[in-house]
């Protein structure tokens, strides 16, 4: 149509009509690309998903009545380890550690010691006969008689 108009054998209206069709299809393509991008679920950090209820074709709203998945952030994981008292004297806050797991043979995980609890429930007996269990963030030494 543009060539015909350039040679003065076509109408300018036909060129404008075709250009409007091209613009409309380009806008539809951009809208389809946006909708396709909205179908991808991206994790905010390193981690893994549990309780996945999202299925192909499901619609997710910004404020859903029920969550479609639970995300576990594994970028800052704390592992609790029980160590024999005789070996605990060699462990200090800030010390580099390397951990291996029996259920994941092969790779090891590195990290730092965040805290050392000096009292654990194993071997600690109160007069009531109940074991002492330290609460979250509670660091205390328990002296008592058995």
What does this structure look like?
There is one protein chain. The protein is an alpha+beta fold and 146 residues long. It contains 3 helices and 4 strands; from the N terminus they run ααββαββ. It has a two-stranded antiparallel ribbon with strand order 1-2. Strand 3 and strand 4 form a beta hairpin. The chain is elongated, with a radius of gyration of 32 Å. The termini are far apart.
TL;DR?
With 146 residues, this protein is of the alpha+beta class.
Please give the structural blueprint.
Elements: H1 2-6, H2 12-37, E1 47-50, E2 70-73, H3 85-88, E3 96-101, E4 104-112
Antiparallel strand pairs: 1-2, 3-4
Number of helical stretches of at least 4 residues: 3
How far the N terminus sits from the C terminus, by CA atoms, comes to: 99 Å
Percentage of helical residues? 10-25%
Subunit organisation of the chains: single chain
- Side-by-side strand order of the widest sheet: 1-2
Sheet of most strands: 2 strands, antiparallel
* Low-confidence runs of at least 5 consecutive residues: 137-146
SS content category: alpha+beta
Shape: elongated
Radius of gyration: 32 Å
Say how many strands there are.
Answer: 4
Average predicted confidence as pLDDT:
77
Estimate the strand proportion: 15-25%
H/E element sequence: HHEEHEE
């Amino acid at each position: 149509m543009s060539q015909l108009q350039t040679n003065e054998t076509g109408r300018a209206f036909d060129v404008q009509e075709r250009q409007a069709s091209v613009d409309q299809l380009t806008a539809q393509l951009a809208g389809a690309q946006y909708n396709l991008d909205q179908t991808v679920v991206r994790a905010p950090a390193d981690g893994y998903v549990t309780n996945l209820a999202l299925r192909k074709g499901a619609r997710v709203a910004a404020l859903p009545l029920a969550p479609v998945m639970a995300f576990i952030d594994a970028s800052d994981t704390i592992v609790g380890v029980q160590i024999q008292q005789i070996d605990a004297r060699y462990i200090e806050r800030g010390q580099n550690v390397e951990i291996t797991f029996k259920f994941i043979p092969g790779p090891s995980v590195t990290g730092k010691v965040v805290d050392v609890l000096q009292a654990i429930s194993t071997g600690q007996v109160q007069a009531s006969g109940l074991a002492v269990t330290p609460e979250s963030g509670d660091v205390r030494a328990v002296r008592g008689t058995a």
